[in-house]
Structure prediction request, 682 residues.
Amino acid sequence: MATIKDIARLSGYSIGTVSRVINHHPDVSEKARKDIEAVIASENYKPNSNAVQLKNTGCSPVTVLVKGSRNVFFESILEDMQKVFRENGEEVSVAFLDEDANEVEAAIQLCVQRRPKGLIFLGGNLNYFEESFERIEVPAVLVTGDAEELPFENLSSVTTDDTKGARDAIEYLVSQGHERIGIIGGSLDTDLGQISDFRLSGALEVFNRRKMNFDMDRDFEPSKFSLESGYEAARRLLKKAPDITAIFAIGDMIVLGAIRGIVDSGKKVPDDISVMGYDGIEYTRYAVPRIATVRQDIHELAVRSVEDLLWRLSYHRVAQHFIIDHEIIPGESVKNIREEK
Amino acid sequence: MATIKDIARLSGYSIGTVSRVINHHPDVSEKARKDIEAVIASENYKPNSNAVQLKNTGCSPVTVLVKGSRNVFFESILEDMQKVFRENGEEVSVAFLDEDANEVEAAIQLCVQRRPKGLIFLGGNLNYFEESFERIEVPAVLVTGDAEELPFENLSSVTTDDTKGARDAIEYLVSQGHERIGIIGGSLDTDLGQISDFRLSGALEVFNRRKMNFDMDRDFEPSKFSLESGYEAARRLLKKAPDITAIFAIGDMIVLGAIRGIVDSGKKVPDDISVMGYDGIEYTRYAVPRIATVRQDIHELAVRSVEDLLWRLSYHRVAQHFIIDHEIIPGESVKNIREEK
DNA sequence: AACATTACCGTTAACGTTTACAGTTACAAT
DNA sequence: ATTGTAACTGTAAACGTTAACGGTAATGTT
Prediction:
């Protein structure tokens, strides 16, 4: 494996000059640049990034911390993020965390060991940030959570308005004639609980305002963001609240599981039970029936967060907070039952 | 950020002794060990991995190269791999490659820059390996491809028998009375084409042996491993070959898209068209109808590959080649049409 | 002609580690 | 009392790189 020394030897210049060529410093003659670049190319030389990073303290690539990886939604965002990094010629490193890990503590560890130049949190619990984010010194972005209220200068956030999304979802169900709506949502003891909270509270707002019949004990069932959990929740919910005509599940994976649960309970979607999801993963457009959902702009979410971080790294900009649009996607999984009455 | 120097200063020992404590070397007194460990704990010190890796040439963590990331199947394997690495106290680094990238060239680049101690290829094209794998010096594992025939001493492989899996799938469809079977598979110009090849040839074997009516132009339609591609392929296939009673799609994502395509062509699954997939992703068990598939043991695939690599790294074992079992999972998506005749 | 300036290039110290080697003790054996 | 040995501990070189600094030669200025 060639090192900068070899390049220096082979090209007849000193390692200093080689380094300058590599880093596009001005003080180098046209000839030297050409010569050295030729050797670099012929030797297929790339600087050893460990050495580079050791020298320039704190510049290993941006790390994306993904919390709870079995999550199609996150995977899609991650993929788009990768693309943006690549387009900007930036390396990325990805670390996966358990769903119940403390991502901020994990990030602190990661910082002392690897000195990344920036951090992106894909999923995260605001409480952990409040507790200990102050100990993180590099620019960071929280995706899927709003850090506007937090007092940190180096933490941007990119998210959608979960409360409003849920309100819109319920309004949509109501517009289709549904009055008894059940909810399958996150339990508060999971770390993604905050998102669930927001979505749940959005739904409750509508119920309240419209004075609809909704009882937390009867019409709500907790669930993780997984197929299995959605399945179980749906079965339990249908037993507790047999008169509901629609279910709003706060994640598309939950809906997918829930549909099977509904079918196994002997009911039909959407004839007996309408269902609506949240997130807008690709498969909702191909499912039979096509699933109504609150689509988040995944691409925008990814692009904004990466670009914000990159800009801040390059130009020392200040942290910002973005709210990305969402969109109600009607679907065959919701039946219009208005005319029936 | 504390360095080894700080620990030395604070504990009153030299950095040599501190380093010995960190690396569990024997030549250090009980007292020194205690003292130094106390300081390390109180300072929350972790060695800077860039420095460590620079010194011990070639020991940045194992890197998993994932090719074509929008692939639920790979994501599941990746997740299981992460778990095994974590259990063994090993770090992992993940890099995502485009579906049409040359993963071996990418790995070579990665080696000169980062000096990983090992490599896992998740997906890959045997041709690229044949061409240039010789230039890779670290132990590697190819997952989802059989490297047995390749002359490389440091390349293990873990895969399932795709040909046999496809044979078994077709036999299953035949056992359910299907005689006119269409296939949706990968086109040869994609890099995952080899897997497609094997699966396709397995299917053809059965058609030949049983002298079944199958015409490549009419009864086969190429497709990438994606929902969209499966959708389009199904629609085209149904137009070309309206008399088929079953479709074997060589990937579960393809099936998921294909089902929508079939429905949009005005047919029903499984009443008009039976479908069967390959891979065994979790959702096949929750889909309505439940999807018959060739389930690969994802967990085993992940565990074997990681453990093989870790063993080889620790004990300098020789590369091995594993064939992981598969299993035919019957499902509601295949209708038994035997009794109808 | 003398000097200043520019443009280029080489030398070297540092980044935080690990490890071979060279001490320094303490204690047992002679 | 001397030597040998064992058990530790410190020192310093090295890993591959960057960047501050100093040097040299060529060119421009007076």
User: Anything to note?
Assistant: DSSP finds 13 helices and twelve strands in chain B.
